[in-house]
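Continuing the batch. This is chain 6 of the set; chains 1 through 5 are on the previous pages. Same settings as before, nothing changed between runs. Recording input and output for traceability.
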Amino acid sequence: MQPSLAAARALAVPAWIMALGFAAASAAVYWTLGPDQRGGVWVPLAEALLNGRLHLVEDRPWLELIHWADGVHHVPFPPIPAVTLLPAVALMGPQPWHTELSLNTAGAVGGGANVGLAFLLLRRLGVSGWALVLLTLGFATSTHLWVAGMSGTHHYVQLVAALFLLAALLTACSGRWPFVAGVLLGLGAGSRLPVGLALPLLLWMYGTRPSRAHLMLLIGLTGPALLVVAFNVARFGDPTEFGRALIASGEAGILVTSEPYYADGLMSLTYVPRSLGWALFGGLSLQPPFVTPSWSGLSLFLTAPMAFLAVRARGSTALVAAIVFFVVMLPSLSHGAWGFSQWGYRFLLDGMPIVLVLLAIAYRGRPAGWMLPATVAIGATANLAGFWWAANAG
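Output for chain 6:
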């Protein structure tokens, strides 16, 4: 065995141990911070899938469901988040879902896994020392902290999508197992559709010229894509119909698209300025007290300031990653709703794994400096304050 290979393998073991440590510590924090979330759709949908159904039989009016017929209520989202819960729900047996598994548990496990994967991705991309520790902590305590701690139907989707994209990027940057990377990316897109738009970055990681690796990546992606297509066809007879426009609004007989947020349809580029405004400047003002928290969101300058350090990345891979980041974010920015019921801008998690790639390029072989710990501290303080606000003033 060559000395360099032996050294790399020797370093791999403590890297995995540290990753698991970060994951476990983060999961413990996420588990205890947020409120008890037992009203989500993913556990009951997993139970329905295990019983051969693609719908819920019980109406839950406080959730975004499609009331298709008596006893038939569809979940208007891709199904992979429910699929991730199948083993746990199967092990629970016939007990009622709400007494056995809450989304706090699932969110904590998923969020903790994300932090471990983030550490491994940064480490694989060449970040070391305090920069590695701080970037991992910065991710764990960014907007991700709120999403993982609060859990809930929409938050769990974001966590699962980020998990699969992180795993896909970690696989791709090794230059091996393109089929696995494609499957992981497909599972991410089967959780949050915009994540699938990260495909060009993974293709780039496997080389700039067409190759067998690229083909295997696409083949791997096809499997989860066909699963999602079959799910839609079985429910609505349309491979592209998820049912978002069929969600009932608060008033009986009225669809969500009738709400003023969707004046130009479910999605439109005209919504981008509004979404960017909330993402970048939500809750900020020029008058005292200068920060006014709102359930509509809080500026990323406070809740994820570390992400802006990605502008320090240079090189061709950084350029590709930056373009792909904006492509991944565009569908969310074009949506009539900009997140709601959030602290920070939760849709950032769709592209946060790509931001970590950019940050890794920026801090590879570079000391942490002062800006990195400062932004990590600001983000952690702001997001921890969010839980206090939710409990006392929200």
